[in-house]
Amino acid sequence: MIDRIIEQFNESARLKLDMSDLLPPAIARAADQILQCILRDGKILTCGNGGSAADAQHFASLMVNRYELDRPGLAAIALSTDSSVLTSIANDDAFDQIFARQVSALGHQGDILLAISTSGHSPNILAAAEAARRRDMTVIALTGRDGGGLAEQLSDHDVLICVPADSTARIHEIHLLTLHCLCDAVDSALLGVET
What is the rounded distance in angstroms from the CA atom of residue 142 to the CA atom of residue 117? Predict the structure, then answer.
């Protein structure tokens, strides 16, 4: 059991080091998009399923409240949190529309959709990205494996942050680190923190 646990730590550390050579340019581009959106009084809508829903909620909480330094709240909404909205859309329309309907109702031109899917194939995430495009919003896609259909939907002004790994657990770990990097980058720019 101890050896298995140690191997989990080692796998996670190895992937993080590998990704430190691959992901920073995309993360920096996404952080700049978020910063520009906030400076224009825009907002970030974020969504995901399961563990990715938890990641979306965590990111929204860090934006609205704080990451590591005190600052005014930043506009972010996790679309997986309102059970009445989610269940009414799923019941009256279809489960694959639970995020798209909210993006259509709440999103405006210049806002950002942070769409999180470890596979990139979740139908409700694909529909949300399509709704964001119709609202002239930027999509930041946080995916894994080969990026899936979500990566294929993106345009040149969108941002793909793809963790090319097969383990869902390892992808989630990199997604969480990525979300923390985004918050740190936005805070450092807003607060003038020296690097």
Answer: 6
Does pTM surpass 0.90?
A: yes
Contact between 121 and 143 under an 8 Å Cβ cutoff? The reply is: no
- Is residue 112 within 8 Å of residue 44, measured between CB atoms? yes
> Regarding the domain delimited by 2-191, which CATH topology (the fold level of the hierarchy) does it fall under?
Rossmann fold (3.40.50)
Tokens 């399923």, located at residue: 49
pLDDT in tens, 76-106: 999 999 999 999 999 999 999 999 999 999 9
DSSP class of 94: -
Is residue 89 classed as helix, strand or coil in its secondary structure? helix
Q: Which two tokens stand for residue 42?
A: 């825009």
Cα-Cα-Cα-Cα dihedral sign, residues 70, 48, 25, 18: positive
